[in-house]
Amino acid sequence: MAVFPQRLDSPLAYEVARALLDGFNRHYRLFRAESAAAKQRFEAADWHAQQRAQRERIQFYDLRVREAVRRLETEFRAGEQPMDVWQQVKLHYIGLLVDHLQPELAETFFNSVTTKILHRTHFHNDFIFVRPAVSTEYIENDEPAAAPTYRSYYPTRESLVDTLVRIVDNMRLQRPFEDLPRDAQRVVAALGARLAPTRLRANFQIQVLSSLFYRNKGAYLVGKVINGFNELPFALPILHGEDGRLRIDACLIGEDDLLSLFSFARAYFMVDMEVPAAYVQFLRALMPRKPRAEIYSALGLAKQGKTLFYRDFLNHMRHSSDRFRIAPGIKGMVMLVFDLPSFPYVFKLIKDRFPAPKETTREDVQAKYLLVKQHDRVGRMADTLEYSEVAFPRARFEDELVEEIRRFAPSLLEISDRDGDGEEEVILKHLYIERRMIPLNIYLQEAFEALRAQPGTPEAQQALAQVERAVVEYGNAIKDLVAANIFPGDMLWKNFGVTRNGKVVFYDYDEIEYLTGCNFRAVPPPRCEEDEMAGEPWYFVGPRDVFPETFGPFLLGHPAVREVFMKHHADLLEPGFWQGHKERILSGDVLDVFPYERERRFPVH
Fold this sequence. Notes:
- The protein folds into four domains: about 10-120; about 150-300, no CATH class; about 325-435, no CATH class; about 440-600, no CATH class.
- It contains 20 helices and 20 strands.
- The protein has helices spanning about 10-35, 40-45, 45-55, 60-75, 85-95, 105-115, 160-170, 180-195, 255-260, 275-285, 290-300, 300-320, 360-375, 400-410, 440-455, 460-485, 530-535, 550-555, 560-570, 575-585; strands at about 150-155, 205-210, 215, 220-225, 230-240, 245-250, 250-255, 325, 335-340, 345-350, 385-395, 415, 425-435, 440, 485, 495-500, 505, 515, 520, 545.
């Protein structure tokens, strides 16, 4: 338990706290300005600038932390100040946050800056914010010019279309719609399928967040219909039509649709929020199954997402007793993967050495993970949380796992009582954390076993349907990655996972490349019989050459898989498919990848 001073008697402590908060305020001002500018980029259909801004904004936080560290060291010699002064700094800082509009983000910024200055390595500190000190409940800017977090509308059944038109008009998009009343009628018809048999109650209303959510080529209006005790979440994707005018493309309804829209496998949104905690609270009501950590990350506040994830993890550790183990499945050549069975995430370490034929380095692998973090993940690449110097209780690690780390990643392992509490810890110097999924090869294997064990039964038919869904989804995943200028590299089933709603997602990034950096070739015909029988290629293979025809033997060994794959995705085995997409991307096209099924789209005319 921290022992704080009873008197605030250090004038320097207040000045340090004020300078620290100035650093955070500058960060959030720049972050918010970049997010707000997404509206103008969307209106101008400047998709390349939108993607560039999404990549660059990810770097904002670390830049502002470094700026704050430099200022505190230069002006206050902050690293030389005693702990008594730093404890007073924290108390002053809490006082400064009482009426702040982003207190939870400012607390995290305090942690980031102070741990760099004082060289503390993990969250065993008496003076940082291990738990939030300032409430985020009911924060609202009461200034007359401030936009509310959300707006409420009170239509009758007869005025629903007019109300929808007014809701969209209030977003003040500076580009005309093709036919907004037509789109509003379509939305009301989609919502009406849920509302038709229901009596409208006294509290019938529509609540809509005041800012649009921008990502890639879309803008999303997010809200909920309230009627009696029922709440119906919805989101309206707004896109540019072929003639440049705007159109509402679909009506996403219910928690599952919104979970897909805000998926951990998609790029972060650009959204202008003065009070982010209020946005998170509103979104959490729409998606109660989604952790707050993931919502903060989806809004571009990835550092806050990491902070909340770590707090959730520590809480889970306190209320569980199982042990970390080597993760089930085929072991990778580059990453060592372990998990805690009761916790829905996996932990990944980069090995110190990689066996042939892998020709890569730790720095290369880290660069690939950063590429994925900054790229539009189009719902097909799992987001990762990256941590350094993470401490776990040694007693919670299986001995076999510790030996595995000692053998393959000894440079990342320290076992000690670094914090001096008498308990030995496993300290990992660098790791990635991802949402746990069922590896696709295991998912298929379970279906194959059911097919063999119960041929001709309803269970076998169900297993066959499972294979078909998985293979179709696998091909769709690759095609979505291709549209986003990503070549997965290693396309084996084991490098893909199945989410809880059946979506196939890629999660092994050490061989990932930009599609535009690859050379897709056809296999030259053999010159003679010896060529045909040779174990090695008879033709030259450059470092970036890819031969799609050769994918088949590695992927299509099972007849049921081959039949489905060739029916739906035979084009993936043709160089022309890949080369055609490469040429379109090089010509400047930004391809559409929708966070909902194509059949959900409203008719174009």
